[in-house]
Amino acid sequence: MNWSAVSFDWNQTRAFLATVEEGSLSAAARALGLTQPTLSRQVACLEEELGVILFERNRRNMTLTQSGLELVEYAREMGESAMRISLAAAGQSQAIEGDVSITAPDLFSTYTLPKVVEKIRAKAPGINIEVISSNAVHDLTKREADIAIRHERPEQPELIAKLVCNTTGHFYASKDYLTQLKHPITLDVLNKANFIGHNSVEWFLPILNSFGLRLTAENFKIITSSGVTLLELVKQGLGISLLYRHVADLNPNLQQVYPECSIPVPIWLITHKELRTNLRIRMVYDILAEELAEI
């Protein structure tokens, strides 16, 4: 191999790739923990080393040139290779001390994980835990998190998953809201009630109506992408919604509505197969599996 022909720096290539993936210099700088001038210089240095212009620059945005479009795929391949090296090396670590990041839905992160994190800290005080509370699916293959708690089994072959428990989702409403409805709470009453939805409800309506309901999108006057916000809206008496049973039971002002509707909610624990041999990640994974099984 002619090593002298490879004259550019990986950090410069990473700056270029991050700018493409994040959409702007400022977003890329935040993602890489750099200042924007530093990142801009790295991109400019890469252009100088390669002898091409990668971006068309103006005040509002940066657009890839034809040369940039042709080279970005090679940069992505380099990024994926660098990630595989990082994952493989991390998998060999036998150090207990260090960082472990866990991503989980926000409602789960807020009401379920704190007690589990307390157990982890008691058993392994040298481990620093980062809880990424998000309903977005973080890409474990890109090391956006070390461990994920999800409701669906992943399809990527490089990820390993364990079904640690099954909880259930039920309709809940505040006692104040239920007093506003005609008693008893019959199907006809529920079909006219206000419901609170999580994101789009169109795909979910057939599942709900399979329990004998006749709900439409008109029943869902409020929709939110946040599980924590959804819970607060229910607590404030603004409607009925599906909630984890183990979370709703923590709120004495909430009452289960229409018990016939019980939706299974699997809890999957996921990590990258390369990280499963990392001692501290393995320890956190095993404690999570043990504690979540008690839900």
Helix-strand blueprint:
Layout: H1 10-22, H2 25-32, H3 36-50, E1 55-57, E2 62-64, H4 66-91, E3 98-104, H5 106-111, H6 113-123, E4 127-133, E5 147-150, E6 159-174, H7 175-180, H8 187-191, E7 195-198, H9 205-209, E8 220-224, H10 227-235, E9 241-244, H11 245-248, E10 254-272, H12 279-292
Parallel strand pairs: 3-4, 3-5, 7-8
Antiparallel strand pairs: 1-2, 5-10, 6-9, 6-10
Helix pairs in contact: 1-2, 1-3, 1-4, 2-3, 6-12
Structure overview:
The chain is an alpha/beta fold. It folds into three domains: 3-91, Winged helix-like DNA-binding domain superfamily/Winged helix DNA-binding domain (Arc Repressor Mutant, subunit A, Orthogonal Bundle); 98-165 and 267-292, Periplasmic binding protein-like II (D-Maltodextrin-Binding Protein, domain 2, 3-Layer(aba) Sandwich), CATH 3.40.190; 167-264, Periplasmic binding protein-like II (D-Maltodextrin-Binding Protein, domain 2, 3-Layer(aba) Sandwich), CATH 3.40.190. The chain is 41% helix and 24% strand. The chain has twelve helices and ten strands. The strands form three sheets. The chain has a six-stranded mixed beta sheet with strand order 4-3-5-10-6-9. It has a two-stranded antiparallel sheet with strand order 1-2. β1 (55-57) and β2 (62-64) form a beta hairpin. α1 (10-22) crosses α2 (25-32), α1 (10-22) crosses α4 and α6 crosses α12 (279-292). The longest helix has 26 residues, at 66-91.
